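Input:
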Amino acid sequence: MRCAECTELLSAYMDEELTRDEQQEVHEHLTTCAECSREEQALALTSRRIKENFMRHSTPDVLKARIRNALAQDDAFTPATPISARTSRVWPRWSTLAAAGLVVAVVSSTITATLVRRSTAGSTLAGAIVDSHIRSLMPGHLTDVVSTDQHQVIPWFNGRVDLSPAVPNLDSTGFLLTGGRIDYIDGRAVPVVTYKRRQHVINVYARRAEGPTTSATNESRNGFHMIEWQSGGLDYWAVSDLNSAELEQFIALFKRG
Amino acid sequence: MSQRDVDRFERVVLPHLDDAYTLARYLVRDEHDAQDLVQDAVLRALRYFDGYRDGDARAWLLAIVRNCCMTWLRQHRDASKVLSFDSGSLSLADPGETDTRAIQRSERAALARALDALPDEFREVIVLREIQELSYKEISDVVGVPIGTVMSRLARGRKRLASALGLDAKEAS
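Output:
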């Protein structure tokens, strides 16, 4: 066997995917050719390094919940929007942003999310809110009042909770109001306003602000992004599996309301 | 589709969700896009489930995931070049870490960049073989190319990664 031939077969030889005769021929060549033998060692080491450094991923809980939710719904059996149609609705919007600005925003918010995730991993309130968000994704748990009309959602909260969260109508921007519900978080009844962007749910939680006004915080847990800000004496949290750039866009629109 | 078929789908196909998600993560390299694509692929799989006969359910699901990801990558080629890393691969230097750890970290980063830089058709066979441990026959089913093509793409992909790690003196082709 010539070296050129051996080089070509080495990778499959390592995987034991050659015919028995070929395995034998390569094996014999390797015992006599130092150069090919070095190459085999380099490839074997590369293969080991890939296995050591790259892990298999586990499906995030949110994705499992989304899939179970979709399977439980009847419309899972009718053709879903083709990927091409779905994405074409999103990307033109992006293209209106300056390309450079988009990159900086996405990269910096990703880094922010990573940094904050390290420093606030112990916050129990944030954990309780993410748990509530995951629960809301289970079939039938998202909304107590189903309405795309802010003038139905706002009065629904009256008498049920002692604060009145903002419920802006953002339909024209692609963030659709879907309704509201009340969750019990950290010992308090908390109003939650729900929006949808494509198939992504955004839950907006409101609590009476405690302590000094802080600047917006931004963190990421189990594949969800959450952003906190204060406005009108209330503490707001938005949680979603949307990417953080779109979630930040949502919050900017929500504040402008 | 009857409830019984959905139950069967959940029993036969859903156990391979981690494999589906792993493949999507390495192909599109963004956790949120990967989630969207896997959800989409699973719903497609459900609609095509009538056409699935007993066989390798994992390869069957992975083929659908792979096709969704490749379509997506073709449509987002320019954008994906810019946004090619996700938060999972970012880590900060720890001042107390040992030299060995630092070397491992920089090696990991070099490997991640090299894998990232591979053309999609090389990256997918590397992921399917090295990380997901599929046989050449299974990879050939998932990717939809002959086994000989799987073989040569794997060989070339590994050579490029070896060069990127400085392990291969020969020029990768």
